[in-house]
Specification:
18% strand, 12 helices, alpha/beta, 2 domains, 15 strands, globular, DHBP synthase, binds magnesium ion, cytoplasm, tRNA binding, 11-stranded mixed β-sheet, nucleotide-binding, Rossmann fold, binds threonylcarbamoyladenylate
Length: 338
């Protein structure tokens, strides 16, 4: 089965496929999601198969507003209401305790909580409304690969495995949503993302981050955070300090194969790039770098294969927390040392 590309005036066809229990990838402001009817257990199970995803890793339920959340979750707290008002639609996923028996354990991975998100993309909101059901949606990549920020990335990973892809061009944010657990006494960030810790704290006061180490070990609370992620074929090495690029490029020039370099224009222009270096621009700042990070990793997998990748690090503050979380995973924590 060849996967069909739907454009944004073919919402009705895409919705019909969802209603028939088929899988349709959909655009969001963060990355593309792999959609299925969240109330159809057989369809949800197909999502895990298509992605090659471990079945204990729960899925986000995509909704068009808080009404659907209330049909599944326990009554929402004032803090939850305030967050929804401030950040939905947008890159914030909220985890709530569920009413018993309302969502299949295929969605929740057997937990008594579920993750909900209202994505900021008009085509996808129209798709959910036309289908008349909420959509599960993990990122629409093969498990372990960088998340897709273009329809062609989805096509590469999932062609033949899903019915269709709703194509709405490049996603805006480029890194996935912030996952915030509202089922704990103190709201806890399980995954940093498009909404920063500072923005959350400004609305509801104290939030904690599960990335802060407990003793010496870091315990991943979002099941998905324990898996290897975002990995291109070539080893990624992070260059944290601007002053290290001279030495890093010297190292690149001594390698036998081609080395990919991902950095902002200022850095690319400040150096004479060795002949065996292929550059991928991250634009001019942290925002454009987050938008292009996954596309760059995929570029060096598919379009311009390399034997190693040097990628620019940023300070892990604000959106930088999400950027560095993803980059560290893709690099297996490998940093350039001079
Ligand atoms: O931006 C996004 O969030 C994208 C777009 C498509 O919406 N979706 C996405 O889904 O990144 P996924 O499945 O790749 O990541 C969801 C994360 C996983 O780490 C998963 O373990 C966690 O959220 N999660 C989902 N439900 C959970 C729950 N009930 N408790 C704890 N973690 C949960
Ligand atoms: Mg994912």
């Amino acid at each position: 089965m060849e996967t069909k590309i739907f454009n944004t005036d073919q919402i009705a066809e895409a919705a019909a496929a969802i209603q028939a229990g088929q899988l349709v990838a959909f655009p969001t402001e963060t990355v593309y999601g792999l959609g299925a009817d969240a109330t159809n257990e057989a369809a949800v199970k197909q999502v895990y198969l298509a992605k090659g995803r471990p079945s204990d890793n729960p899925l986000i339920v995509h909704v068009t507003g808080e009404e659907t959340v209330k049909a599944f979750a326990q009554p929402l707290s004032d803090k939850a209401e305030a967050l929804i008002k401030a950040f939905w639609p947008g890159p914030l996923t909220l985890i709530f305790a569920l009413q018993p028996g309302k969502l299949s354990s295929a969605v929740t991975g057997g937990l008594n909580t579920a993750a909900f998100r209202n994505p900021d993309n008009a085509a996808t909101l129209a798709l959910i409304k036309a289908a008349g059901v909420p959509l599960v949606g993990p990122s629409a990549n093969t498990s372990g690969k960088p998340s897709p920020t273009l329809a062609k990335h989805v096509y590469h990973d999932l062609n033949g495995k899903i019915a269709g892809i709703l194509d709405d061009g490049p996603t805006k944010v480029g890194v996935e949503s912030t996952v915030l657990d509202m089922s704990t006494d103190i709201p806890t960030i399980l995954r940093p993302g498009g909404v920063t810790e500072e923005q959350l704290a400004a609305v509801i006061g104290t939030v904690q981050s599960s990335h802060h180490k407990v003793g010496k070990t870091e315990v991943p609370k979002a099941p998905g955070m324990k898996y290897k992620h975002y990995a291109p074929n070539a080893q990624v090495t992070i260059v944290d300090h601007e002053a290290d690029w001279t030495a890093a490029l010297q190292w690149a020039s001594e390698q036998s194969g081609t080395i990919g370099v991902m950095a902002v224009d200022r850095i690319l222009q400040a150096h004479n790039l060795p002949d065996n270096v292929e550059a991928f621009s991250l634009g001019h700042d942290l925002t454009s770098a987050s938008h292009r990070l996954f596309a760059g990793l995929r570029h060096f997998d598919l379009e311009s294969p390399v034997t190693g990748i040097l990628a620019q690090g940023f300070t892990a503050e604000g959106l930088g927390a999400a950027y560095m979380n993803r980059l560290n995973k893709s690099a297996g924590q490998q940093h350039f040392t001079n």
